Amino acid sequence: MQNKLVSAAKWIAGFSGKKVLVVGDLMLDEFIWGKVSRISPEAPVPVVNVTGESYYPGGAANVARNIREFTAGAAVMGIAGTDPHGRRLVALLENAGIDISAVQQDPAFSTTVKTRIVARNQQVVRVDRERPGPLTAEQTERSMRLLDPAIAAVDAVIVADYGKGCLNQTLADYICRLAGERGKILTVDPHPHTSLAWTNATAIKPNRAETFLAAGLRPTDPIEPALRDEPLLAAGRELLRKWGTRSLLITLGEQGMALLEPGAPPYHTPTRAKEVFDVSGAGDTAIAVFTLGLAAGAPTAEAAELANCASGIVVGKLGTASVTAAELEAACARP
Fold it and tell me: Is 121 contained in some domain?
């Protein structure tokens, strides 16, 4: 693994000059922090005394936030409501220095909010407020108009599909066509239940469960070592055939990541996580850093190593966290 990271500092230094557009479902992550000292007399549940609240961009907006840690060239496209949650989300993105010129603010749209109540560094419960639904013809047309200049201005495009209704096949086809015609890197974090086709993407990043589901195969328990996990490798090969992508990066949780490419032996990078406090947003960090690595010119195996290192850092933080260039460079330098 060390051999794959010898150029880490070089690639990370190259991140700062890149421009990346993130397209997908924008959400607001709300964290309510508190203390638990007793059980409720009304039901066998803890009583949380609130000590603070925090708000972060979530979903595709969190991918853009991760990009922004490495470069000023972070842009995001999606839809937010004009409700208080939507206004807060747009303000968070703008204050972070992320280009929001391609964000639609639609009064008919309900902003997705995920509220996590955390006590003693443990998540007690998560409350989701969402009304997912298909895009209207007007929203789709507006998105296509915004995509033209947005894709032209960047080096790479990331699609983060959370299945909340901000993407459809018309948009997927348009993104793939524009990225291909303009020679842009296109990476996709798919949602298996939307069943969208991403033709000729540079790379697609499902997790283990999504890999089996998308391949139409029965999921199995992980096998050690990962490169001998034949059911997983068979599912990956099926997705390479089905999706026609140049690279398939499968995130495997505590097993790290597996990289599959047509005509090449599979590559595995073991997890770099030392401690796991919160897995919120780890996939967002992975797709952000992997894409930045490709944009900086790193071979796919080295980009996967960078993404794996970044994910190992972010799961050691509480909340929807991100990773800095200094943190990533230090982690990559460790044996």
Answer: no
Count up the domains in the chain and report the number.
Answer: 1
167 lies in some domain: yes
Single-letter code of the amino acid located at 11: W
Beta strands in 110-184 (DSSP E): 112-119, 122-129, 156-160
Residue 47 lies in a domain: no
Here the CATH number for the domain that contains residue 165 is 3.40.1190.20
111-140 in b/e form (b: 16+ CB < 10 A) is bbbbbbbbbeeeeeeeeeeeeeeebeeebb
Q: Which of 21, 20, 26 shows the shortest CA–CA distance to 105?
A: 26
Residues 190-204 have pLDDT tens digits of: 998 888 999 989 999
How far apart, in Å, are the Cα atoms of 51 and each of 31, 48, 75, 84, 92?
11, 9, 33, 22, 21
| Residues whose CB is less than 8 angstroms from the CB of residue 114 and which lie 6 or more positions away in sequence, other chains included | 27, 28, 29, 30, 58, 126, 127, 128, 129
Instruction: Reply yes or no on whether 148 is catalytic.
Output: no
Which domain covers residue 141, as residue numbers?
2-25+59-79+133-333
DSSP string computed for 238-261: HHHHHH--SEEEEE-GGG-EEEE-
Q: What is the pLDDT of residues 254-273, one digit of tens each?
A: 899 999 999 999 999 998 75
Catalytic residue, chosen from 189, 229, 278, 284, is: 284
**32: how many CB neighbours lie within 10 A of its CB?**
18
